[in-house]
Design goal:
- The structure is a single chain.
- By secondary structure, the protein is α/β, with parallel strands linked by helices.
- It folds into two domains: 2-104, 3-Layer(aba) Sandwich (Rossmann fold), CATH 3.40.50; 106-136, no CATH class.
- It contains five helices and ten strands, in the order βαβαβααβαββββββ.
- It has a four-stranded parallel beta sheet with strand order 2-1-3-4. A three-stranded mixed beta sheet has the order 6-5-7. Strands 8-9-10 form a three-stranded mixed beta sheet, with no helix packed on it.
């Protein structure tokens, strides 16, 4: 079973429809018992990091996700991917699931032509599009 984790603030229907379009059935799960039976896990998400962690905590899913991730393939989509990291600075410091090393931080803007070489900056070009630099 492919488990689609429901923690109250995600784009479940969009993800469910995308998989249905591919002919793949996913099962909505929102309890630890359901989670441990999944062969694969999808952690979707839309919204703020803290609200996402609060939703997981309220359903008792934080530790079961951590334990399942040791042997179950898990993909995070959008906010779900961010929650996999150690923490975020969005709306103040919030601990994440800690499955991936690193911290989620805001990408700073810098205007095109700026000589600043700080990493993780986004530049705005003359067409008013944002360019995110390659990392790694």
């Amino acid at each position: 079973m492919i488990g689609l984790i429901d923690y109250g603030i995600s784009n479940l229907r969009s993800v469910q429809k995308a998989f249905a379009h591919l002919g793949v059935e996913v099962t909505l799960i929102d309890t630890p018992d359901q989670l441990v039976r999944a062969e694969r896990l999808i952690l979707p998400g839309v919204g703020a990091f803290r609200a996402g962690m609060d939703g997981l905590r309220a359903r008792g899913l934080i530790e079961p996700i951590r334990q399942a991730a040791a042997g179950t393939p898990l993909i995070g989509i959008c906010l779900g991917m961010q929650l996999l990291f150690e923490s975020s600075d969005e709306l103040g410091h919030t601990a994440g699931l800690g499955l991936l090393p690193g911290h989620v931080t805001k990408i700073k803007r810098q205007e095109a032509g700026s000589k600043t070489q700080e990493p993780f900056h986004v530049t705005r070009d003359t067409q008013h599009t944002l360019k995110i630099p390659h990392v790694g």
